[in-house]
Amino acid sequence: xxTDDDALxxxxxxxxxxxxxxxxxxxxxxxxGGAEASDVAKHLRTLxxxxxxxxxxxxxxxxxxxxxxxxxxxxxxxxQRTVQRWLxxxxxxxxxxxxxxxxxxxxxxxxxxxxxxxxxxxxxxxRIPMGGVKVSVTGTQGPRDYSRDRTIQQKLTPEExxxxxxxxxxGGDVAAREYLEAVLSEKYVDxxxxxxxxxxxxxxxxxxxDRSDPRxxx
Length: 218
What we know:
Strand order of the largest sheet: 1-3-2
Number of helices: 7
């Protein structure tokens, strides 16, 4: 039976997969703020992150997610340097600011308006590869009556990925899960059901790359 913790983890897992398509978070300078500094970074990343494409020394392109400290500072009424100090753990935000961050981050995931805003932000900052997106889903899932913990991978066309994001924006994690079930039932195995999602990742596929032929794995 799913618990409140399971529901929260699934909600956050879906949010991260949708918001940060195939991206890595830029590392922040470690400081002395400990868990509180980590929470600040998490909330700021949820609300004020941008994604850009960089090329590694080896010529590989990858997406990197970075917190826009300038945008965060403007929205919260503080200096950009103050936000940078929060991220480094040098200082912690006032409790009123922390409460505001928590509220805004929660609304971004749990309200329709918040989800729509996050999807608009993701669309503005992300380029969906022409080859589509490979989604990896870990959790309790499978054909009806044969559900178990497993990890599966499936290629989504750009249109399917947009429909997936739209489903999440309109109906939250339940609608997003149901959309994935429909796609998997059509393209993977008939009558595929997802009971609980414990992990998910989205990675872009270059045009002409057909190596993503999905197969289920334990």
